Amino acid sequence: MSLKITDVSVRDIRFPTSRSLDGSDAMNATSDYSATYVTIETDGGAGPTGHGLTFTIGRGNDLCVAAVKELARMFVVGRSLDDITGNFGAYWHELVAGDCQLRWVGPEKGVIHLATAAVINALWDLWAKQQGKPVWKLLVDMTPEELVRCVDFTFITDVLTPSEAVAMLRRVAPGKAAREQEMREVGFPGYTTAAGWLGYSEEKMRRLAREAVEAGWTHLKQKVGADIEQDLRRARILREELGWDRKLMMDANQIWDVDQAVSNMRRLAEFDPLWIEEPTSPDDILGHKAIRDRIGPIGIATGEHAHNRVMFKQFFQAGAMDFCQLDPARLGGLNEVLAVVLMAAKFGVPVCPHGGGVGLCQYSRNVVMFDYIAVSASLENRVLEYVDHLHENFVEPLVVRRGRYMPQVQPGYGVTMKPESLERFSYPDGAEWRS
Ligand SMILES: C[C@H](O)[C@@H](O)CC(=O)C(=O)O
Ligand SMILES: [Mg+2]
Questions:
Q1: Looking at the annotation, which residues are catalytic?
Q2: Ligand 1 centre distance from Cα of residue 184 (Å)
Q3: Is 5-132's fold the same as 169-421's?
Q4: Which of 369, 301, 308, 362 is nearest to 340 (CA)?
Q5: Integer angstrom CA distances of residue 413 from 44, 52, 93, 120, 340
């Protein structure tokens, strides 16, 4: 019997991270990591529930909550799960394009697309729970044809067609079982941003970097962009702690113009950064390409603010991105993530998803496992971001061993929060905010 979706509710959950400056960067000095948290109920409460979220950094949550309510009313409540997942790509298209009045406030970008992510990811969570598998395993066990049916190829067929995608997936299928076993045994390589937040003092940063090295991390990311002299000083401290065999990455969070990015990165080049992330406006594809051409061999990483598959298509076509940092809650949920993962494989760009936000590491570990096992079949230049705060609020803990992510075990997409956390951090009425 198919599950019938009988209700969708949405909560505004905010964590006061601005008090400790966790998550701070040159553009976002005081962010409160927040989740627009969606719950899908089935069969009048008698069936399983699906949970999804989108990430904001505070006040924008009000807007996302309102957008989720509209999408849920129009496209989710009253539907059967089998009807949705039977042709998930077509359903996704209906959600993003089926109502011209909602589409107008995107299209496929901004608040409405963030809300799409929360709803779509909650549907994936529900489907995976119904199937008794974590999302990565649900994906890995699909045939190429089943996977491709989950993708909406609208606007990307000039670079990737459904039949090409099927052929790509078939080519790597013979090694899937071995790669799955490898992931279960040794996990997926990660990097930590936990020491590098811009608001942390230099003493704290040094101490956290030292602890990160002791814990086995081989890659660490530093926030830059507020002041170049400070950036140089902090990079020196990090190199003293990391040595020169470990990798150092830098993230400017969109703060520079193109020429500024070039001159600042030429100065920071002495610290041998693997990449500079979001050196300028996230929409400036040709600007990224110009920076890349002028500061090589430093790589260009971007994507956490690239709002849809068409942006990624152009970054790939322009040769403007060396590391694809897709964000699982900024793209319109997992269906669109699949489109980007497939295009990245075709263009040979490694996928290193964005994890800096509440719930993003949880989603992204499913994405990288799937990408490695079933799509790219490569670990070259691939690392998944790790931030260390707020994980205690989720039902299933993240497991990281010596800097490597272990696969999610429980069924679903991994972002189900503990009831007590939902109560405490509900905005504005939860205990955390009332006080
Ligand atoms: C506001 C977020 O913490 C942002 O700094 C995250 C980010 O850029 C990253 O993790 O990368
Ligand atoms: Mg970033």
A1: 223, 354
A2: 28
A3: no
A4: 308
A5: 22, 8, 21, 11, 18
Handedness of CA 413, 418, 419, 424 (dihedral sign): negative
Show me where the domains of the chain are located.
Answer: 5-132, 169-421
Q: Is the peptide bond before 297 cis (omega within 30 degrees of 0)?
A: yes
Which residue's alpha carbon is nearest to atom 6 within ligand 1? 356
| Nearest Cα residue to atom 9 of ligand 1 | 356
Q: Does the structure's ipTM exceed the value 0.85? A: yes
Q: Which fold has domain 169-421?
A: TIM Barrel (3.20.20)
pLDDT per position as a tens digit, 236-261: 999 999 999 999 999 999 999 999 99
Tell me: domain 5-132, CATH 3.30.390.10, correct?
yes
CA 90 to ligand 2 center in whole angstroms? 31
* Residue bearing the CA closest to ligand 1, atom 10: 356
Q: Measuring from each residue's beta carbon to the nearest atom of ligand 1, which residues come in under 6 Å?
A: 23, 25, 28, 31, 57, 193, 251, 253, 304, 354, 356, 385
User: DSSP code of 332?
Assistant: S
